[in-house]
Design goal:
6 helices, alpha/beta, six-stranded mixed beta sheet, two-stranded antiparallel ribbon, binds flavin mononucleotide, Rossmann fold
């Protein structure tokens, strides 16, 4: 029986969506069966053994679709292994050590009983469109996402889920 993992994400400009794809690829390497989807398109958690939920950070808040996902599936998340991630910092800090989740994400993690959270670097194009985004891009732009960091984090999740499944099967 394959362990089926939902990898859901809230992303405005595609950077977090791609991190979710990297997580999916790493979970496949770990022998799991991931399903990578925009958080807003998920209708039910039936059939998923575990969930990884991520969101881009905008103005120190998680992307709306990720916040809504936690509210919509509060019951289903409480009964499944859950990991959260954020993507945001437009500098090297996410690679230098564990960054604490922003306040709202920390609260969501507590409420939903998440087993872990990671903050990954973000990406912003220098010519990003939009009033706020272009102002932010003037000060900081670039791609600070580290695929190896993402892969290692997801491999840890894969290992944990496989060990848990092994324990269940042996009993
Ligand atoms: C208007 C604006 C506000 C942002 N605010 C934050 C923030 O509060 N914290 C943070 O870490 N990153 C912040 N970022 C950086 C984004 O999180 C980063 O660009 C991220 O990769 C966006 O993900 P997406 O491409 O999936 O939308 C901000 C970016 C923009 C354009």
């Amino acid at each position: 029986m394959m362990i089926r993992v939902l990898v859901a994400y809230g992303s405005e400009r595609g950077g977090t969506a791609e991190i979710a794809e990297w997580i999916g690829a790493a979970l496949i390497e770990s022998g799991l069966d991931p399903d990578v989807r925009p958080a807003g398109s998920v209708m039910a958690l039936d059939g998923y053994d575990a969930v990884v939920l991520g969101g881009a950070l905008y103005a120190a808040r998680w992307h709306r679709d990720a916040r809504r996902f936690v509210r919509r599936f509060a019951g289903g998340l409480a009964s499944r292994p859950l990991w959260l991630f954020s993507s945001g910092p437009l500098d090297a800090t996410a690679g230098e050590g564990d960054l604490e989740p922003v306040r709202g994400v920390a609260k969501a993690a507590r409420k939903a009983g998440a087993r872990g959270h990671a903050t990954f670097g973000g990406r912003l194009a220098p010519d990003a469109e939009g009033f706020l985004a272009s102002a932010v891009a003037k000060k900081s732009s670039g791609d600070y996402r580290d695929r190896e960091q993402v892969r290692a984090w997801a491999a840890g999740i894969g290992g944990e889920l496989r060990r848990a499944a092994g324990r269940v099967r042996r009993h």
